[in-house]
Each structure stands twice: as C-alpha cells, then as structure tokens.
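Can anyone check this?
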Amino acid sequence: MTYGICGLSLVPLREVAQFDAPLISEVLYGELIEVISINRKWSNVKLADGAVGWIDNEQYIVIADVEFAKLSKQEPKTAVDLVEFILKDNDILFPISIGSTIQNCIFLGHRFEGQTSGA
C-alpha cells in the first residue's frame, strides 16, 4: 500500500480523474491519505473519513508505511479558526483552513502557533 500526506492548504478530491470533474470532498493540510492506485497524472485515494476520489499526483507527498503508521497514532489536533497560518520556509506565512490537521506540521517541516482542538 502507498500512503501520502497533504502539504497544501486544500486539495480538491474529484469524482473522476479530470480537472473539470465534480468535487466529492477536499483534502486539507496535514491530512493523511491511502493511495489506491496511481496513473500518469492522477491518484485514486481514500481519506480517513472513507471518502474515495481522485487527486493530482503533484498535490500530495508520498510517505513510507512506517511514517504513515507513526503519524496515524498521534493525538489529533485541528485548526479551529476559519483561516490560520503555518510558518514554513524561512518563516513565510502559509494559509490553512479550519479543520486542517496540525499535529502533522512538524513532519512537514512547518510550525504552527495558533489555537487547536485536541490535546
């Protein structure tokens, strides 16, 4: 099995592997995904909530099974404000939305200083 993590603010999860396909859901920053299959441009993925759809191959980072297992066991923490920011690459502010998975930001090399739900 292949796994991934979303390092972008928000990635559209599409019904079929086309840019104009209807949205099923959205993959938020820090969210872990299971990759079901990969073609030249698209990956068929499954989210933790069970949603299955297609995302662009360039819009997630492939992670090892061991990393996926470790990250999956962390205490959940999510952004609670409508718009929050993480600090990345020389303290550049990067916007993320409410519900983003904050406990994985250290793995992505980012820093978060806002309010979260969870421990």
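Reply from J.R.: I decoded it. The two ends are 30 Å apart (CA to CA).
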